[in-house]
Amino acid sequence: MPDSALTVVIATRDRCDRLAGTLRRLTELPENPRILVVDNASTDGTRRMLAERFPAVRTLGLPVNRGALARNEGVAAAPGPYVAFSDDDSWWEPGSLARAVELLEAEPRVGLVAARTRVAPDGTPDPIDELLAGSPLRGPAGLPGPPVLGFLGCAAVVRRSAFLAAGGFHPLLFFGAEETLLAYDMAATGWILCHDPRVIAVHGPDPGPRPGRATVIHRNEALTAWLRRPLPVALAHTWRLARRSLGDGSARGALAQLLLRLPAALAARRPLPAAVEAAARHVELARDTAR
């Protein structure tokens, strides 16, 4: 893999120690990728640690926390044609980035490679692996895995031009379940998103509680429906959220946040092309049947 072909972009905020562990693993990869850390206004000494311990790692410091949009900044600043996303608690298996680049160079219609993900420390499969491998979508012959309409943000390699053409991660979502909307937008601009089980990421999430996480997931799933799906689908999402809110505090918070953001979502609404909407329904049907 040429030194300039791929950049690993990491968005981080106030997780200095975990970021250092990730960078140690990434800097030992045989592919020797460029690494760009986008710091979301950390206050824990992250930038000092980077300058002292990883001077070869490029740092882009943001003045405020921009959530997932920090990845957009990283892609815009990346010099090469391909970008791999890591979180400050995830990294790549040796050889995986080279395999992703080989696929992207061999298949110019592929805009994103969705990796297989192992969960540290014991290497168990992430639950998303089964969904990706079991995608009901069909694409051109010769792909290493099925086309998909979703991915894990810390386990994907993108073609930079495809990411930028789709607009990157949407500002209305900020963070949490932001991948689906980008998958829709990449497919809507004509790109194939492909699962490749030979490309492997490792995720070592903090086992502690994540306050508010469920709320933003519920909110963003509904916002995604309002931004891109037919009105009956968006209304059904909102109705289900409203019913859950009667006995679920996270759903109640999500509904309140959704209503605050709904005018902006309606202003930015852009329904999917018919073929992508049909694919989204096909994926949802397969997922619901498997439950």
Strand fraction equals 15-25%
Low-confidence stretches: none
Sum up the overall morphology in one term: globular
Class per helix and strand makeup? alpha/beta
Helical amount? 40-55%
Mean pLDDT across all amino acids: 95
Q: Cα distance, first to last residue?
A: 40 Å
Largest sheet: 9 strands, mixed
Structural account:
With 291 residues, the protein is α/β, with parallel strands linked by helices. The protein contains 11 helices and 9 strands. Strands 1, 2, 3, 4, 5, 6, 7, 8 and 9 form a 9-stranded mixed beta sheet that branches. α2 links the parallel β2 and β3 (58-62). α8 (213-228) packs parallel to α10. The protein is globular.
Short descriptors:
11 helices; nine-stranded mixed beta sheet; 291 residues; 9 strands; 19% strand; alpha/beta; globular
How would you summarize the topology of this molecule?
Elements lengths: L5 E7 L3 H12 L6 E7 L5 H8 L4 E5 L6 H9 L4 E6 L2 E3 L3 H11 L3 E10 L4 E2 L2 H6 L22 E4 H7 L12 H10 L3 E12 L9 H16 L2 H15 L3 H19 L6 H17 L1
Parallel strand pairs: 1-2, 1-4, 2-3, 6-9
Antiparallel strand pairs: 4-8, 5-9, 6-7, 6-8
Helix pairs in contact: 1-2, 6-7, 8-9, 8-10, 9-10
Give a short synopsis of this structure:
This protein has helices at 16-27, 46-53, 69-77, 96-106, 128-133, 160-166, 179-188, 213-228, 231-245, 249-267, 274-290, and strands spanning 6-12, 34-40, 58-62, 82-87, 90-92, 110-119, 124-125, 156-159, 192-203. With 291 residues, the chain is of the alpha/beta class. It is globular, with a radius of gyration of 19 Å.
